[in-house]
Amino acid sequence: MTRIPAITTFLLTIGAFGIAPVFGAATCESLMGLKLKNTTITASEPVAAGAFTPPGPAGGKGKQAAAFQNLPAFCRVAATLTPSSDSEIKIEVWLPETGWNGNLQSVGNGAWAGTISYPAMATALTAGYATASTDTGHTGGNPATFVPGHPEKVIDFSYRAVHEMTVAAKAIIAARYGNGPKYSYWNGCSTGGRQALTEAQRYAADYDGIIAGAAAIYTTHLQGAQVFSAAAVHKDEASYIPPAKYAVLHSAVLEACDELDGVKDGVLENPTKCRFDPQKLLCKDADGPSCLTAPQAEAARQIYAGPANSRGKSLFPGLERGSETGWATLSGPKPMALADETYKFLVFQDANWNYLTFNAERDMAAGDKTAGALMNSIDPNLNPLFSRGGKVLMYHGWADPGIAPQNSVNYYNSVIEKLGKAAVSNSMRLFMVPGMGHCAGGDGTSTFSMIDAMSAWVEQGKAPDRIEASRVRAGKTDRTRPLCPYPQVAVYNGSGSTDESVNFSCKVQ
Ligand SMILES: [Ca+2]
Hints:
alpha/beta; Rossmann fold; binds calcium ion
């Protein structure tokens, strides 16, 4: 009789040190019988190394297929979660067969979600994590098919699916290995960045480390600003900036501001210091390929400024100088579908709504009333997360042409205003990435590992004072540079190669 408690104590003890006990683990196949609240396990199958092919058009081709071919063996669990009568949340949880690092890394979505994020799961699994992803409760990226008449599905997309997935993933991990994850991480960019901060604000117990890239928070204003940037160039024919002129504008910006940071390298380390005025490019005579007409210069000014109310107060930041080569994202031939659709299907519930009628002050207020409380995710009180030791890492490309980078700065500053600088420094840091576009790419050093920085912070207490980043072109690293915790920037020490990180220090400049 006394032996049973002794074994239990033994299991609890080794469980507390994060070592997967052999006892209590289940086979992959047997997880089909796992009973969880509002959950139907639809598949639980061992997948041999390199044998996974994602369903649908994403499978089978190019670089992504190579990533899947290099996957280690894992247990693939698929489930459908139904927290409401109209919910149909698909999730997948992948569990390494060998070499599990003891932790969970959940990965986020892009845009309207609607798919399992297989490529990001592949990266997490390859690094030794158990990983989870959800389609957020609908299939495919078209809001017309799930928003009208489905308020519960909108809630699933806004915040519920990710939380329900997290709870289920931890239970599935515990069932498979005999103990749950020691540390749980969220890693996402764009919509995944919004999901990150939504978790941080609403469900403080879910994650120990939360990575929020280019967070699509303040969504109603963000997408209003995206519509505004389209209307700025399409309100009349003369205002349209032909995409061939983006490079002209970009060159003029670099000419004026590249060296403000001390290094002429084609990248603005801190674009907020650049006040380049597009009026400088005004055509002397007739319109030409290397100048802007007055209406085009005014449209460019509006893109940099962002929308304001009738008293001139900013309603959302504009894009930064240096982002010009990506302006087709918002101000190309058509408005960004994601933003246009938000106003059509979520805010006005009118498929015929015309973005050219957009009035920022009036329509963002309407957006705040309908969708704002569900998905804006701008609550600055992260104290419940911080007080249990949780960490937040934000990052955002300064040349992001889709989500104004200052949106991340504004949220970060709002948390400091709410909780104080010291508390925030212990628990949350923001890394702006000079020259990086939306979540990736661009002329800056946009290759880095936020998850490695985060795990060192959470597991070893090493707060990230700088994060090493590199620029990879044609498969070769041609520049390294530190990313610095905002408001610091990478400052050249004055000697040695400007393409080597060791010659830079993080400082407030
Ligand atoms: Ca520079």
